[in-house]
Amino acid sequence: MSKRLVVSIVAVLAAGMFSPLLRAQDEKWNKIPPKRAAYNGKKPSGPAPRRDLTGIWDAAQTLGVSGATEHPALFPGGRGQEGGREDETGVAKPLPYTPAGLEALKKNKPSGPGVRQVDSVLTNDPAGKCDPLGFPYMFLWELRTLNVVQTPKQVIILSPFYGNYRVIWTDGRKPPADPDPRYNGYSVGRWVDDYTFEVQTTGMLPKTWLDHAGRAHSDQLVVDETYHRVAGDTIEYTMKITDPKMYTEPWLALNTLPLHLMPDDFDIPELLCSPSEFAEYNNQVATPVLRDPSKK
Hints:
The protein is an alpha+beta fold. Helices cover 16% and strands 22% of the residues.
């Protein structure tokens, strides 16, 4: 993705240009969360507070770039560099597509790593045009650091990645019966016990994608989430997809994915989508490579 490339270049330049004194002054800003290896063997903290998700939570760079991590669009042992396939025949954990779901899949041309990847100038990925990602795509592409704010009637999830946010109502309302579709849909949540929060989201725009692998959905999509706070510093997050038009049965996209609590002064770096940067990337990198594959 062009923005990641730009951010990486800027970070390298900054590291060489700024003095140690200036870097020390900026330690509180644009923090980088620990990688997954940092949690290996680490014991959970003490008990979690009752009915509380408040805090800054990180998925330890579980970026999901090949689609839903429980059903990656990869061949067994693949690293996402195959590309060019019309469908997902041969992937390690195939999805239960209906004929309509398979037809819709073939119309989507993902640029993300996977068996169907195309060059970025050929993709019709909404993210490639800086369109809103919508839900659940925002969680099934790069699940980055989240800031969760809780009020008596709402749980609000903020993510600087693409400027995403969600509002989950907890005031007892039911999902709308005939909703006007929205990018993020309509979310209602409830506590089933002191440490388990369940959310159901409906009414998503059918033109959005489920994930970065180009999986499609219909107006019948229902996304069920479970946030299980197993310790003070850990949430296990699960997402289930139900869409009878596109899939013959429900399936798990994420299953007990750990989210780790960051310090309360953790400043989440901004990562927004810039149409001009995408255009520059395509002009300078993607289009020349497409015309001359030897430049890859």
